[in-house]
Design brief:
The structure holds 2 protein chains of 2 kinds. Chain A is α/β, with parallel strands linked by helices. Chain A is built from 8 helices and 9 strands. A 6-stranded mixed β-sheet of chain A has the order 5-6-7-3-8-9, sandwiched between helices. Chain A has a 3-stranded antiparallel β-sheet with strand order 2-1-4, with helices on one face. The chains are: A alpha/beta, B mainly alpha.
């Protein structure tokens, strides 16, 4: 993996003349996990999509850049709320899909190793319908990891999971994505309190940074300072109209 | 199982009503024969009917096969190229505005009395439903998959072949199921306009000679063949894409 760059985005976005967000400014530190927390409809996902080079429907006036000056295209991996697995491909083919979409030889050994790291060694040849929701999201995580891209954009990837699977996935993702620049959009204060090296609160007025507890992420979900921080984030969310 | 029972029940009831109407109204057999006469004719003329049914079956299968291939390729061409879309799509709709029935005589003139004018007729009838069902499915690839492919820097051709086509195959299956029901209609129209063999020809001949029992017998065989074809196509599509 190449060195992970910091991400900067500043500007305002509209869709068909209707304001989506901004003007605002966001920084995700290099190699750190940044949680972007905010109420629904505030434009978090749009912002993430712009960083991922998507969002053709969005008119964006401003700047999106990595601090090393190189373009982001080809250095970004994305993970969404849905697992977006192809139902006609087995787990390992889903993981190697990216290579085949680019016309490169699929690296089966590497895909197998990554699937083993997410705990799916016995499920390589299973299709998505034969896997549980948590397992499917782990295949999606493996697919995100296999290309070893330095920037990872997460759009509520764990929100559809039950509480236990979600906590396990958070630990796994925090371990496996360490060292990459992660921007994690979430509306879950508990998740932000556990995972963020930086926690950004996005409201209609803009983005403010809320310093998280000192404990290293992923923090214990039952530690008093995690819970206190979670309560504080929730209070700020409630006050944000 | 209950569905099968229900179908059998409805069919039995229909036959009963049919026989009752014929018996009670004392209809002559050249106006409407009862089901018992139709089935005895079906049995006594089984060799004749089978011979003609085989001809029609081949026409339908060849038409269905060619129509499926042509529809598949056309839909991919339309989905892959905006230029092809802007030129061909109006033509595709226009081709449906022309009643295919009206084309049957000219097809017979061009392609002769044999197999190919019927195949062409079947093909003309099924081409639009197959193409349009598959094309619609190709244009409705879930947004998330398209964006995933884009973030992974997919080339347009590989995106089409590896995601859009496999994702659209169930739509192609819907088109094929429709085509299985429409293709026999095409073949029969072709046979009515000009043929010396086939179930359509046999029905026209029987009608002309007031052998209404034979006409009904041929009609029943045609309906059963169509249902079997639909069931076979349905089973194939399920096995391939829905599992």
């Amino acid at each position: 993996m190449n060195a992970a760059p910091a991400l900067h985005l500043s500007g305002r976005a509209t869709i068909g003349g209707a304001p989506i967000f901004g003007p605002l400014s966001l920084t995700a530190r290099a190699g750190k996990w940044t949680c972007l927390l905010g109420p629904s409809g505030v434009g978090k996902s749009t912002l993430l999509r712009l960083l991922g080079g998507l969002g053709d429907e969005v008119v964006f006036e401003g700047k999106v850049a990595a601090d090393d000056g190189a373009p982001l295209d080809g250095r970004v991996a994305m993970m969404a709320q849905g697992d977006l697995l192809m139902p006609w491909l087995d787990a390992i083919s889903n993981v190697t899909l990216g290579a085949r979409l680019r016309g490169q030889p699929p690296q089966h050994d590497r895909a197998r190793a990554v699937l083993e790291r997410v705990g799916l060694a016995g499920h390589l040849a299973k299709r998505p319908h034969a896997l549980s929701g948590g397992q499917r999201q782990r295949v999606a995580l493996a697919r995100t990891l296999v290309e070893d891209r330095p920037v990872v954009l997460l759009d509520e990837p764990f929100s559809a999971l039950d509480a236990r699977s979600r906590a396990l996935m958070q630990d796994l993702a925090a371990e496996l994505l360490a060292g990459r620049t992660v921007l994690h959009v979430t509306h879950d204060a508990a998740e932000a309190a556990r995972l963020g090296h930086d926690v950004l609160l996005m409201t209609r007025r803009g983005i403010t940074s809320i310093p998280p507890p000192q404990a290293p992420a992923p923090r214990r979900f039952d530690a008093p300072e995690t819970l206190a921080f979670q309560a504080r984030l929730l209070r700020l969310l409630m006050e944000a109209e | 199982m209950t569905a099968t029972l229900r179908i059998v029940g409805v069919a039995a009831l229909g036959l009963l009503v049919w026989q009752a109407v014929v018996t009670l109204a004392a209809l002559p057999r050249f106006i409407l024969p009862g089901p018992s006469l139709v089935f005895s004719t079906l049995w006594s003329s089984r060799a004749l009917i089978a011979e003609h049914a085989a001809v029609t079956a081949i026409e339908v299968l060849v038409g269905l096969g060619l129509g499926a291939v042509l529809g598949f390729l056309s839909a991919i061409l339309l989905a892959a190229s905006p230029v092809a879309r802007s030129f061909l799509r109006p033509m595709l709709v226009f081709s449906q505005a022309v009643p295919v029935f009206a084309l049957a005589p000219i097809l017979t003139l061009w392609l002769g009395y044999g197999l190919w004018s019927k195949v062409a007729m079947a093909l003309l009838i099924i081409y639009f439903p197959v193409t349009s069902a598959f094309f619609d499915a190709l244009m409705r690839t879930p947004q998330g998959w398209l964006e995933l492919a884009r973030v992974k820097n997919a080339t347009p051709g590989r995106l089409l072949w590896r995601i859009r086509v496999p994702a659209a195959l169930p739509g192609f299956g819907s088109g094929l199921r429709l085509a299985a029901v429409y293709a026999p209609i095409g073949a029969i129209i072709g046979e009515w306009v000009g043929a010396s063999r086939g179930l359509g020809y046999l029905m026209l001949l029987a009608n002309g000679r007031a052998k209404i029992d034979l006409m009904f017998a041929a009609l029943i065989v045609l309906a059963v063949l169509t249902l079997l074809l639909h069931a076979a196509v349905d089973a194939l599509c399920r096995r391939l894409w829905d599992a």
